[in-house]
């Protein structure tokens, strides 16, 4: 019996080994199959099976492909490559000289603030759907921050185009060099479509590329021409400079800030490995030790093999998130990572006392919680240099100062930075029926806030009459006041604001009335001049194009303080006349104004908000 027991035990061990070996083979096959499933599914999923079909690639499809690469396929490599793409621009003396001249990298904290703001803005622009509020707001702020220097001739289009080229090309180069697979041509086409559109949104011209006049075949064609141009520009312009070296040192100090002292030389040496010789020369940086190169390349090859054969692809539920959702009350979001100082990081328990935080504490690093680093999060419009933080909104009022102060108090109760020199909300008293007063309003706004993005022209005047009684409709004074307040005031304000709005490619939005669409309302002079106001908006949209959009909204009856002056029977009749059997609300109007402010493709339009009563 004993030999039988021994043999039986051997059989069990043999079976176990077979099962383990089979499981390992099945797991390996599953990894290999799933690793390449997404890459191989792109042509069919997005319906771009051939090169000729790539010419029809939409921006939304390109963004989805780009987002998948950045959050699931290669999140670490894409993130690092974008950081080094920005770092690489510091090898151009015209760029590094300007950055140092701004004073934004004068201290470690200013340098880390600038790096954090840049990272947040990039994430807001790249990770949010094109045309979404957060995406548009991010692009608008980038354009404003650059616009001051472009207007002064301190930023040239070629420097902007070179920066754009690195943002588009470095992730591809890094992925091909350091990741478990290369970026496919279809994915490159998507990146080309995405970055070309983003460049156009940021007013970066590609006119120096060979096919600029006749157009590009597809996104890949644009990207290939951009790569050739970028290499030539770099060879010509990446030259040694003291400003390059100073900026490189400050950036490395921030990048290695939270590392233990003993690891900093090693990390510095590894960083030298990923910088091209020309960039090291331009920044006056040393060559890395030869032993680092051997160890680094060995580690990269081991990582590639392991990811390709041992690790399942990252599922959607574990995708990398760069920021949180906006808080509905405060309008703030938190960033999800930091390098040196914990800017905009939520001081949660895990962020302060989790394993990573404990390691940072042990080696003297920084953890979230210090009020200096905005633990309440960020608003997009508050990112950027400190002297611009707090720039916000101006509210004009005529005579009712108590109502204006009450509104100011309510708005200031929403958390956010504000000071006497940089107010978030500012009140200006002005008579909109007086042209010099309108001009002064615009001048004071620009002086206080530094810019104009959106002007909402809400002035108007009428007198309550019986609309069908002609005897009440022929008062010359009514006609003069209505024409001044309902037409001329909007013209004066638009004219005074046009240059500032042109500088930011802003929008002018006027509040008209459904009375201008369908004869109705408080008086005939009001209805006629509101119709004139709508036509004025359409005319100004033609005159101010292409840099300023001009639109208007035409609400029906609103139950505001003015609307409540109408007799109850007239209000009930107004509800009955709507197709939706409800009156529009102030919030409905605000939503439409917001849409017009955000949409970059709408101008010369009058949006009627009346529940269908004018149909």
From TrEMBL:
The answer to whether the entry has keyword Ion transport is no
InterPro entries of this UniProt entry? MPAB, NAD(P)-bd_dom_sf, SDR_fam
Gene Ontology MF: a single term: oxidoreductase activity
Spell out the protein name for this chain: NAD(P)-binding protein
Instruction: Report which superkingdom the organism of origin falls in.
Output: Eukaryota
Q: What transmembrane ranges does the database entry give? A: 12-30
Instruction: Read off the Pfam families from this record.
Output: adh_short_C2
Q: Which UniProt keywords apply?
A: Membrane, Transmembrane, Transmembrane helix
